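User: Show me a protein chain along with its predicted structure.
Assistant: Here is one chain, sequence first, then structure tokens.
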Amino acid sequence: MNCPSRLRRLWREERGMVAVMVAAMLTALVGMAGAAVDLGMIYTARSQLQNAADAAALAAADTIITYDGTFIAQVDYDGAWATAQQIAGANQAIGVNLALLESDFVVGKWDPDTGTWVSTGASDNPADINAVQVTVRRDELANSPVGTFFAGIVGVDQVGLQATARAYIGYAGNVPEGAVALPIAVKAEAVLGDDDSPDCGQSLEFHSEPDENAEWTTFFDWPVNDPTVREYASGCRTSPALKVGDEIFVTNGNLSNHTFQALADRFQEEGTDTDGDGQADEWLVVLPVVKSEHHGCSHTVEVVGFAYFLITEVRPAPYKDIVGTLQCGMVIPDSSTGGEDFGARAGHPKLIQ
């Protein structure tokens, strides 16, 4: 074979090999592009399902614990279930409206200390319920699996997906402006029992002495003195919005006769006459709970939660004392989850998963 013939043959063989290589590369590129399209769609669907689950769980938890005119906590399971359905149905995953299965709506108790979850079912007891779990899916059980575009080439025509969210409605972690009625900060150790749970119904007496179970506060105002405490006690100043973690000014010790008289007058003005004798017998108030050590002078303390107290007596000089009982199982409206357990539940939940 002469040289020109060999060159032509070599050219044809190399051109054929290049064609095969190009075809193989194009096939790989198309496969990679197809995989990217399918994976992107699956990722989008998974994100949309998670958003729907988050929204439905939060809305249901925000609904499941309600309260009556006296702020006593109540369970509204049916309302929470209907809310979860509505919120889930208002969402889509890859163009499909999301129906929620009742079996995917679970209520129960979550322990924030241990991170454990227990399903309790539709109990009427608010103490049995503090969390809602919602699972939203696109699979064989509901809303049909997500179809693929290119994965069908290798036998994967559809993919089942699901997302779960859990929302916790715990104890009050903040209060709005004006929610705290009196310039009193209660020490945490005074309201907790031996097992570190709130000692519900416990009667507390505050005698305005240097070593007490509560302290006078002017919140964020300095200095902490008798005139400023009196302005808050009389209602001339409105308490600020407070949240867990805030550092507030407090002092302990005796207050003037004028200040204690302002407290007694306020009790009569805003308290309730329960026996018809024309005198107030009780006054339900929200107070901040703080971690504090006795310092014997003005200092700052950290807010760790909030509690309801039923004030039953405010006596001015010469007694200068306040008597009240810790109330549990009540809701502080417009408060968010985030405080320690002192018996006052939050009005709004937070996501925990």
